[in-house]
Amino acid sequence: MDANRKTAYYTLLDIETKKSYSNIALNHHIICGRPSSPSFVREVVYGVLENKMLLDYIIAKLVPDIDKIKTSDLVILRMGIYQLGYMNSVPEYAAVNESVVLAKRFCKGREAFINAVLRSYIREKLTIELPDRAENEIEYLSIKYSCLPWIIELWLEQYNVEFVEELLKSCNETPTLTIRLNWLKIMKKDLIEKLEAKGFTVENGKLCENALRVTKGNDLLESRLYKQGMFSVQDEASMLVSVVLDPKQGDTVLDLCAAPGGKTFAIAERMNNKGRIIASDVYTRKLALIDAEAKRLGVDIVETKIWDATKIDSTLIEKADRVLIDAPCSGLGVIRRKPEIKYKKRTSEFDSLPRKQLTMLNTAAGYVKPGGVLVYSTCTINPNENQRVIAEFLKKNPAFAKEEMIQLLPNVNDTDGFFICKMRKAESIVIR
User: Fold this and answer.
1) How many other CB atoms sit within 10 Å of the CB of residue 132?
2) Residues 6 or more apart from 34 whose CB is under 8 A from it?
3) In principle, which of 83, 225, 304, 312 could form an S-S bond with 287, CB 3.0–4.6 Å?
4) Degrees to nearest 5, angle at CA 335 with 91 and 89
């Protein structure tokens, strides 16, 4: 049995049945399965995830009662049809035969069914049409780009349909690997030279001076340069948060909801490892990741603390020069990295997020010194969690004034979708 397809199958089954995060499940099964081509595994897994609704639409055209198909069968059918329809590098016979081999192992008695469906697809794929766009544009976009209608409707409230289609298309593209060089250990020119010497293709970032885009090369995170803390993997949108915060050497900085610590260490590097950063999070296990990363990067100004960002820590009132609240959010800006987000139904928990975010922001405001800076960020594309939260905060907190507000979008900026707002607290409040 092909270890690559078996690894992809196990990963996709875990995502379906255990609701595992795609990146975590994929890394776990690649380590356990030791496939000969991890890149092939990733292409199949993310290809199936990014196009799941479209693949199921196709299967429903070939099989009556798709709802009665077992999850194990459905995963193999999705994999097979994706290889047949969207991977030019895979011959038809290989896609069908290897799918049948998987079925014999994991869906005993169903291999003939799997074989028949895939061969039907080969015969009929050119005749399968998408829903009529003129009759129902949202349904058309939903199937074509495999995205639940409520997300499309949300984006159509902000942008025209042409822009939304560009946004949907970009969410199905593979993001460029971006790294943040560690100024504490190496200069940009030297890091570029060392990476290129190891066969990597490196380009400057588009938004941040310490960002590099790595487009070719293998096993970047296994390199000695990474293990020695010369760089970290971080999207430029996330890096930009620390740029907007603009911390200075000697500052006291609070990073609330800090785990897993990417922004924390971007801040520390900008401070030249001089000053104090308190990184808090509600999850103990996540704070352990920050402590380990501090050792790799050579940062010693970060103090980790278990704390719920919705609660007030009276010991820190007006003690911070700069405060970052990177709030929990719906994650609609990182669909490129976590395609499963596209299939989450809108729930009461989702609708309650702005209230929780506003609570965190109001709490964070209390920690800012007069004249200090407060930055609010999310990795989503939703005005209810972004612009409207800021508007409500500023209405209730007249001591703060907005200085900069940014909404990054994958189809415009070639980054994750990120919202960043910088506010400054007045030196003193005049009471009239």
Assistant:
1) 10
2) 3
3) 304
4) 10
- pTM for the model stands at 0.93
**Topology of domain 238-425, CATH:** Rossmann fold (3.40.50)
> Beta strand 302-306 with 231-233: parallel, antiparallel or unpaired?
unpaired
pLDDT tens for 306-358 read 999 999 999 999 999 999 999 999 999 999 999 999 999 999 989 999 999 99
- Residue 378 in contact with residue 385, Cβ under 8 Å? yes
Does the domain spanning 177-233 belong to CATH 2.60.120.560?
Answer: no
- Residue 379 known to be catalytic: yes
Distance CA 386, CA 377 (A): 8
What average pLDDT score do residues 231-257 get? 97
Q: How many residues does the chain have?
A: 432
Indicate which residue of 147, 171, 379, 421 is catalytic. Answer: 379
Q: For 93-130, what is each residue's pLDDT tens digit?
A: 999 999 999 999 999 999 999 999 999 999 999 999 99
Tell me the domain boundaries of the chain. Answer: 3-127, 137-171, 177-233, 238-425
Find the helix packing angle between 92-106 and 71-86, rounded to 10°. Answer: 170
Structural fold of domain 3-127: N-utilizing Substance Protein B Homolog; Chain A (1.10.940)
The stretch 362-375 carries a mean pLDDT of: 97
